[in-house]
Amino acid sequence: MTLNIHPRIPAQAAALTKALAAVLMAASVLLTGCALGGGQESPSLPRSQAVILRLAETMPENHPSARAMAYFAEMVNRETQGRVTVKIYYNGSLGTPTEIIEQVKFGGIAMARVNVLELSEEVESIRKYFVPSNFAGGDAQTEWIHSNEETLRDECQMDRITPLVWYYPDFRCFYGTDSTFLDKKDLEGKKIESSESALMAEIFRDMGIELAGSVNTNTYKSLISGNIDGAESSFSEFICNNYDQYIHFVTKNDAWCLPDVMIINTENLTSLSKEDREAVEKCAQSTYQYQKQSMEQFHQVWVETLTEEPEVSFSEGAFR
């Protein structure tokens, strides 16, 4: 699956690439100035002795968070002088999010980029922190996470998982083939596909929505057959699945934000040398601004594209 960049917006796509390249260059200069290991260079290890960390990514390479993974891998290789290599597997090639997290927990996969919806299935104790009513929006949630990273880290490490960086959340959206969902009343009693997680089930229950299963490759068939009334997902997932080409009613969901997070198996992290462990952690943190700008640019390009598309009705919802 590849990200669908419509040919009618080449200038916007080019601007996005140029802006992100500038961010990458600035962050690289900043990171290079941080003296890892007291400023002394360590000799590069032979390839046969290098540590290879497999990183599972469920989205294609052009997804905003997936781009941050590529940036992370590049920085780690440079800052450890090849002693640590991060190899990324895109498009869910290593399994579903649930399978990936389970493998990270037991060390079958070293690292992954997942969403809190899936992570909270494995680390149930963090679920209570991400109930939408706790936050006024994405900025408030991000501020809370940054103030409580140690608490989240401690709770995840009890399940042998260490979060390296929490990302700026994508906004969510509702969509369907026949009508627009604009507020809570439009959703009452409706069967909506989304993520089959306990956190999402709780969110849906509070809004009087029936969670009808998980969004998947058959979602469109379920919509046109009438088996479901609509679906809900992150906006980037909607675009990456090319749903904009045949689902014509899309509404921005202002009610909740659910962040992505980069995780690593705790034993894999602690087995690294102190110098390389600090480099990996520093590189991960350095991807936050890159991912945030990538996500914001993604939103700008695609919201404008859908707004101008005559066959698509893109609306701002009021679900709070």
From TrEMBL:
The keyword Signal applies. It holds the Pfam family DctP. Keywords: Signal. GO terms for biological process: transmembrane transport. InterPro entries: DctP_fam, TRAP_DctP_sf. This is DctP family TRAP transporter solute receptor. One of its GO terms (molecular function) is carbohydrate binding. It comes from the Bacteria.
